[in-house]
Amino acid sequence: DQQVKQNSPSLSVQEGRISILNCDYTNSMFDYFLWYKKYPAEGPTFLISISSIKDKNEDGRFTVFLNKSAKHLSLHIVPSQPGDSAVYFCAASSRRKTGANNLFFGTGTRLTVIP
Amino acid sequence: DGGITQSPKYLFRKEGQNVTLSCEQNLNHDAMYWYRQDPGQGLRLIYYSQIVNDFQKGDIAEGYSVSREKKESFPLTVTSAQKNPTAFYLCASRAGRTNTGELFFGEGSRLTVL
User: Fold this and answer.
1) Cβ of B99 and A105 within 8 Å?
2) Which end of chain A offers a freer environment for a tag, N or C, measured as fewer CB atoms within 10 Å?
């Protein structure tokens, strides 16, 4: 059963506009969330994270919002640039689960930023 | 530069053959992981290791084997028992042994079974 879901497999956005990528999770034990960016034939690279004690974390053009009651997080990219075109994976983990060493990944959303 | 090196980047294998994918890291990380990526399925955990000489099965360990004889190295063997081995394989590492912090990924190895 997929515990982290990214229901939009793809998203196209005009350069300069906002990109919003969404992620839902089902496990209420998750308390740490991450976004990874992946270019074709390369490994994912860490982009931004958020702990469940926060509802927003910002890093330059990237902001992640967390809505714990809805079990939903989103990644906002403003302004979007052509170099942002990639697959974005949402991931979640529970830091309270001792000994666990796993991130649960979503299926990814392919973002295309049109120049 | 510190990082994770996977080799080979591309590999072709005949059915019935075992193949070993290499993963080396010089980040001094304790934990290492192998993931498999298939289209539309995200990343699925094959095996992970928190410490030398110890490793645990992930969600899809059947048909795979690993070893962790050195901290820097975590090779993955795709055996002939793996029914659908064609995929993109990603190795990752993490600094601590607990479930915190982000994973650092290698560039991946694409295995194609002919």
Assistant:
1) no
2) N
